[in-house]
Design a protein that fits this description.
The chain is mainly α and 398 residues long. Helix content is 55%, strand content 3%. Helix 2 (42-63) crosses helix 4. The radius of gyration is 23 Å and the shape is globular.
Length: 398
């Protein structure tokens, strides 16, 4: 009779006693996330969170080897898709990622996020991500296999089994038990404040170690990490996300895959913990992962600093061939107040009503101000064409 593959294969699932180095990084991360965007008007912060979702989607796609331009993602969000099937499918994936992350952010704002490592929530993320996927995206092909993936369903058949680099995930017949164990090892409702932050890193790796779905595991793990950051109190209202850091690394872009591979390392002798996997490797991975998070929070804090953003908005107007100098006053007004009524344009610009209306229309035409209704108050927006000027280094240099 063959030996049953036990769930202890993924132990240590998390670090019960974090090291002093990890505790120091956690303290820095908690402190930095607490001040990220604190000076921003809530409406401006909400519109910047929309920008962060697009950025997170771009980098999550990049990790998967798909270079989907921010402008293509922006078009997909308004229902404009490429005629080419391959690029259209990438746009569909991107739109799905933004939609699911927006739902996570909404639940977090309402204090209604469920246990982020629960089997139910993980399946929900996968199901929602692939909800509108065409059959081509759900059809998994390999050298000697082809099958249709069911959104939200664990791997359950032998044909679902696959090697991920050097790693062989648990067999499909054991995924359910491994995910039950995963859920029991990451109970956020029973973890302390610092324990929740530390758990984000281990859960990210261990979910990928299980590889519960035939495809989409990386995307789901990054969305789960985003939800965990919210539940751990470091989400900063959606103003940062981990995907940019994972894609770029601290020093090189290949770090993510190397560190994930490192965390797969088996236990190295009696002084390397008591589980099947290396405790030292998990510690090293956790330190790296949390430093990546801290690096992103610090980076976004610089981009979203109120005074720095105001300066970049003024500079954008100065360099524009389509905007009058008075446009900068409108943008700063929206930045500070969140929104303003269209009828306030003459007061803000100091121009006669007709001239002020033309300046406002120019700014709206540039996509920098917009409203939810044709005559409603306008607030700041951040179109793809302006990102390089307003948020330098947000995307890779080309």
């Amino acid at each position: 009779m063959p030996e049953i593959e036990t769930v202890n294969r993924m132990e240590p699932a998390r670090l019960e006693e974090p090291t002093a180095e990890i505790a120091d990084v956690v303290a820095e991360l908690v402190g930095a996330s607490a001040v990220l965007g604190r000076a921003l008007h809530p409406l401006t912060a909400a519109n910047l969170a929309d920008l962060v979702r697009v950025m997170n989607t771009y980098y999550s796609n990049l990790i998967e080897g798909h270079d989907t331009r921010p402008r293509d993602i922006e078009r997909a969000l308004v229902g404009e898709f490429d005629a080419d099937e391959g690029r259209r499918n990438l746009q569909l994936e991107a739109a799905a990622h933004v939609r699911v992350q927006a739902e996570i952010d909404r639940l977090a704002a309402e204090n209604a996020l469920p246990e982020p490592a629960s089997a139910e929530f993980v399946r929900r993320l996968h199901r929602e991500f692939y909800r509108d996927a065409p059959e081509a995206m759900l059809t998994i092909r390999g050298a000697d296999r082809q099958f249709r993936m069911e959104p939200g369903a664990w791997r359950s058949l032998a044909e679902h089994d696959v090697a991920v680099g050097r790693h062989i995930p648990p067999g499909s017949d054991r995924v359910g038990d491994f995910m039950s164990h995963f859920e029991n090892r990451f109970p956020f409702d029973r973890l302390g404040a610092s324990g929740r932050v530390v758990a984000i890193a281990a859960a990210h790796h261990r979910l990928n170690f299980i590889h519960p779905f035939p495809d989409g595991n990386g995307r789901v793990s990054r969305l789960m990490s985003h939800a965990m950051a919210h539940r751990a109190g470091i989400g900063a209202h959606g103003l940062w996300s981990v995907s940019r850091g994972l894609a770029r690394g601290l020093e090189s872009r290949g770090e993510y895959r190397r560190m994930m591979d490192l965390a797969d390392t088996p236990r190295q002798g009696d002084l390397d913990g008591r589980g099947n996997l290396s405790q030292r490797a998990l510690i090293e991975f956790t330190v790296w992962f949390l430093r990546v998070c801290l690096d992103q929070v610090v980076f976004m804090s610089g981009l979203f600093d109120l005074n720095a953003l105001a300066r970049r908005l003024r500079l954008y107007v100065e360099r524009s061939q389509n905007l009058k100098p008075e446009a900068a006053r409108m943008l700063e007004e929206a930045l500070l107040r969140g929104e303003f009524d269209r009828g306030e344009a003459p007061r803000i610009t100091g121009l006669p009503e007709r001239s002020a209306r033309r300046v406002l229309n120019d700014v709206v035409g540039e996509g920098l101000l917009a409203s939810d209704t044709p005559k409603g108050p306008v607030s700041l927006r951040f179109p793809a064409r302006a990102l390089e000027s307003l948020f330098p280094r947000l995307y890779p240099e080309t």
